[in-house]
Design the sequence.
């Protein structure tokens, strides 16, 4: 049967069917030109209703399953001792092995409690690459976050399978230099959001755990996207193809002492988070902070029904067909773009495709925000919303010269919500990106006309040049 397209053996269409639909609205090009202008060319000021496909973030944007929606009805809203809390606690313990579980309203709330507890002025906190809010909480306590990602992790064209690995030699040196006195813990973020959702290997995690243990320093995990990391290990790491996702997760957690989670990602819910620890006294300290900040430790800022849905989501996220399709869908979009020559971060990570703005638009200098130029054009052409993670978000003002220092990478993130869009939505997105790439020479730069003193990307306003 020559000429018939052969599907790859692991091809899987969506492992679910649609029972309830949420309409999305296509606006006209003229409307979108007006709307984005009114929004100051800032994606955060657009109304979600005016967007056709929303790839701003994969955080809190998942679709829940019928089991999760049913679980909502079982929520126990007791202030203390809620049945739903115990269900969540048992689920987290069965996955992580950590017996002491404390809910929080989202990831950054868990980060605040952990940092308030453990980070003292002058502390050094090494990790592969800390997420922004994590870093900010460390700095607010006078700590110094240290990113020790392997060098290849920052090279968008390097196709290595585990670009989220921590540099073990650097880790060893930092721990030897500062020791337990200055280093409260080591933090591994799996997958690593800030370099494109890249995974760390089981071998790397084991080795990092052994180094930390040798120095008597705890190892914690930021597990916002841990199931996707486990899947990459299953699919890519030698000797792991026979292990189940659950076994891989258990092995990862056995290398460390605790974790923080934003369950808005791999929890498959729209809001929530938690911490989990091996150590009882640490947990008890965290409970004290929770009581004044988040709530009594058996709800910690979450409704009982939401803890039920989260407990269920944490089971579903470990199912192999789910993960195959999930990570496969991201790879599917990435592959379409790559085949058309669009410069992206390779290989694609677990939750998003990142376009390399500087290589996409070499004629636009970084101070004119190439990735944001692409973002705006994708909205005007296709009603697609994306997120700049480049010169607007990461440029830092030099204290002496007052000049901006721009980051090495100027990226545009196309984050894929979980179980929300089909592959034909991905085809639509790919068609628009590719069309834009073919007309890239017609695109022009931007300037900032208003910006606040901190976190400027959320509220700045821009104008085309
Ligand atoms: N850790 C990682 C790795 C994250 O990606 C995020 C959030 C957090 C912690 C904080 O969790 O939002 O529940 O408070 N990332 C979102 C994103 C905002 O769009 O990547 P949160």
Sequence:
């Amino acid at each position: 049967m020559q000429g018939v397209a052969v599907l790859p053996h692991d091809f899987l269409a969506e492992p679910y069917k649609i029972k309830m639909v949420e309409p999305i609205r296509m606006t006209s090009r003229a409307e979108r030109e007006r709307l984005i202008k009114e929004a100051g060319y800032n994606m955060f000021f657009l109304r979600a209703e005016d967007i056709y496909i929303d790839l701003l973030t994969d955080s809190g944007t998942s679709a829940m399953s019928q089991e999760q929606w049913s679980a909502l009805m079982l929520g126990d809203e007791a202030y203390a001792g809620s049945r739903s809390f115990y269900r969540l606690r048992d689920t987290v313990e069965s996955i992580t092995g950590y017996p002491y579980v404390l809910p929080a309203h989202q990831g950054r709330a868990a980060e605040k409690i952990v940092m308030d507890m453990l980070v003292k002025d002058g502390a050094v906190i090494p990790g592969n690459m800390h997420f922004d809010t994590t870093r900010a909480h460390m700095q607010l306590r006078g700590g110094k976050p240290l990113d020790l990602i392997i060098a290849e992790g920052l090279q968008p064209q390097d196709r290595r399978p585990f670009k989220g690995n921590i540099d073990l030699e650097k880790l060893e040196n930092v721990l030897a230099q500062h020791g337990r006195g200055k280093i409260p813990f080591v933090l591994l973020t799996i997958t690593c959001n800030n370099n494109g959702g890249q995974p760390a290997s089981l071998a790397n995690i084991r080795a990092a755990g052994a180094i930390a243990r040798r120095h008597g320093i705890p190892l914690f995990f930021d597990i916002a996207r841990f199931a996707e990391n486990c899947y990459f290990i299953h699919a890519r790491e030698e000797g792991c193809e026979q292990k189940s996702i659950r076994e891989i997760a258990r092995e990862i957690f056995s290398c460390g002492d605790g974790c923080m989670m934003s369950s808005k990602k791999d929890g498959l819910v729209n809001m929530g988070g938690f911490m989990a620890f091996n150590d009882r006294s640490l947990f008890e300290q965290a409970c004290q902070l929770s009581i004044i900040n988040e709530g009594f430790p058996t709800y910690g800022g979450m409704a009982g029904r939401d803890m039920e849905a989260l407990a269920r989501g944490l089971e579903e996220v470990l199912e192999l067909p789910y993960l195959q399709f999930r990570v496969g869908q991201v790879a599917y979009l990435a592959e379409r773009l790559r085949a058309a020559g669009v410069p992206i971060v390779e290989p694609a990570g677990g939750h998003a495709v990142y376009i390399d703005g500087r290589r996409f638009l070499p004629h636009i200098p970084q101070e004119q925000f190439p990735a944001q130029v692409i973002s705006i054009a994708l909205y005007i052409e296709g009603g697609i919303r994306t997120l700049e993670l480049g010169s607007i978000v990461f440029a830092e003002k030099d204290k002496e010269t007052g000049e901006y220092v721009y980051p090495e990478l100027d990226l545009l993130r196309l984050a894929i919500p979980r179980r929300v869009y089909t592959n034909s939505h991905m085809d639509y997105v790919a068609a628009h990106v590719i069309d834009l790439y073919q007309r890239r020479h017609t695109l022009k730069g931007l300037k900032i006309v208003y910006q606040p003193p901190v976190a400027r990307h959320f509220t700045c306003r821009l104008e085309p040049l």
The chain has a mean pLDDT of 96.
